[in-house]
Amino acid sequence: MAIPWLIGGLVLAAGAALVKKLNEDDDNSSSSSDDYEMESRRREEAERERAENERKKKLKSARENFAIRGESIGVDIAQSLNNWIELDFENSPAFSARLNSKGCKIEHAISNGQDISTLLPSKNHQFDEIRENLKIYSDIYSVRLKKGTKLVEAGQEIEMIESELKQIGKLKAEISRLQRDLSAQL
Amino acid sequence: MKSEKISIKSIKEKLNHISNGNVDDRPTVVAYGLMNAGKSFLLNMLTQHIEEEFFKTNDIRETAEIKKFESEKYVYLDTPGLDANQADDAHAQFGASQADVVLFLHQPQGELEANEVKFLKALKQSFGSFAESNIILVLSKIEKEEQAKIDLIEDRIKTQCTQEIGFSPKVFQVSNKRYQTGVIKHKDGLIAQSHINSLIEHLDFVALNAGKVRAQRSLTEVEALLQMIESKEQLLRSKRQNLKDGISKAFSIFNAQTDALREFLEDSSSEYRNI
After folding, report:
1. Is A168 helix (H, G, I), strand (E, B) or coil?
2. How many Å apart are CA B245 and CA A8, to the nearest integer?
3. B76 phi and psi angles, rounded to 5 deg
């Protein structure tokens, strides 16, 4: 009677061992999957960081290039105004526009402090575009503008002509009156 | 005078001169002609300075400036000879602006000379519709030539006036010498042959419209002044536009560069937002 009992006991023991073994295998498999996820997240994070760093570098580079190119355009513009407009820069470098997420902004707009409309002679519309552009230039390059020699001379000449035209207008009115009086005597 | 050269000041002066005008109610009779045409002699006769001359006569040029004699009816002006010099011509022109009646004297040595024609043209324009009545041509010193020759010259002068000047003024053949002698020696025949009295009669007739002549001549001057001032105005406007265009041109590169700057700012902003 001892043998069947033993066999029974062995079978139980073997079963228990098998169950234990199976449980151990399950534990090992679960641990491996977590690691993979973590790794994946880490990689994604690293990728994001790298991309962000890359973007920041690009933004920085774009801002730097923007400033360099902006300054260079400013030099060309200043040259084109030679003798016509005198320039008094507030800062060096002068280019005051800065790029940001919304586009670009002017850091030190000074146009409110000066009346650009009086720089050019007469109030007609011929110089509207120039006036507008001078305001933009003044804002973007933080520069105060004054009339240059050529503009002063041209302005004075135009002023003199306008004064003469005004006098001619009065004389014409006087002549018309005289013409009426004389015609009445004929 | 060219309109671009004439100053506003001188236009004002001319206008003042016209506005103030000749305030004397008496008609002004002005004698013109080449040097020694007999202007002063004729004026002496007309003003009854028979033996003692008021207007100096001489073979050399006597009348350097305008000389005036005022009678009860008229104001007489004697002018320098037209060919004397430029300054004297200016005096003569000034006299012309004062004239209500012009006595234009010509010695019967031949037809009208070029400068006489030129001066008569200007006078005719100034007198307008009154030119034929109030510009009187006087052939002087007729006692010095044959009547036939005098008549030929008169015909030729009339043709010149019609064809070259465009008017037909009345022409008087006069002899101051005959009139002077006639008056001194009481010889009516000589006085009649001098035709001075006919001239005086005609003068009295045309002087009646002196007021209208003045107005007409002032009007002509005013119209010329207006034309001058309008030309000057046109020139000034064009000069002003040239100056403005010069400024626009000088700023054209600046405008193009500012456009490029705007474009640069817009492109850079757009690219920056897309990073």
Report:
1. helix
2. 119
3. -105, 135
Is the whole-model pTM more than 0.90?
Answer: no
Residues of A whose CB is below 8 A from B254: 77, 80-81, 130, 133, 137
Q: Looking at the domain assignment, is residue B4 inside a domain? A: no
Nearest-angstrom CA–CA distance, A88 and A90? 7
Other residues' Cβ atoms within 10 Å of the Cβ of residue B153? 22
The amino acid present at B269, given as its one-letter code, is S
Q: What is the CATH number of the domain that holds B189?
A: 3.40.50.300
The verdict on a CB contact (< 8 Å) between B243 and A165 is: no
d(CA B113, CA B153): 12
How close B128 gets to chain A, by Cα (Å)? 12
pLDDT in single tens digits along all 275 residues of chain B: 455 567 888 888 888 888 877 678 899 999 999 988 999 999 999 999 999 999 988 755 554 678 899 999 999 999 887 865 554 455 455 556 678 999 999 998 899 999 899 989 988 988 888 999 999 999 999 999 999 999 999 999 999 999 999 999 999 999 999 999 999 999 999 999 999 999 999 999 999 988 888 888 888 889 888 999 999 999 999 999 999 999 999 999 999 999 999 999 999 999 999 88
Q: Are B237 and A165 an interchain contact pair (Cβ–Cβ within 8 Å)?
A: yes
Domain residue limits at B86: 22-211
| A106 touching B (Cβ < 8 Å) | no
Torsions phi, psi for A85 (to 5 deg): -130, 130
Q: Which amino acid, one-letter code, is at A114?
A: Q
Across B209-218, b (16+ Cβ under 10 Å) vs e yields bbeebbbbbb
How many residues are recorded in chain A? Answer: 186
Q: How many domains does chain B have?
A: 1
Task: Confirm whether B225 is domain-assigned.
Answer: no
Q: With contact defined as beta carbons under 8 Å apart, do B134 and B170 qualify? A: no
| B251, part of any domain | no
| ipTM confidence score | 0.77
Q: Where are the domains of chain A?
A: 68-147, 149-186
Cβ atoms of residues B79 and B30 within 8 Å? yes
Cβ of B244 and A158 within 8 Å? yes
Do the domain assignments include residue B180?
yes
Distance CA A159, CA A86 (A): 20
Strand order in the sheet with B171-173: B67-70, B75-78, B28-33, B101-106, B135-139, B171-173
Contact A175 B262 (CB under 8 A): no
β-sheet bridge partners, residue A22: none
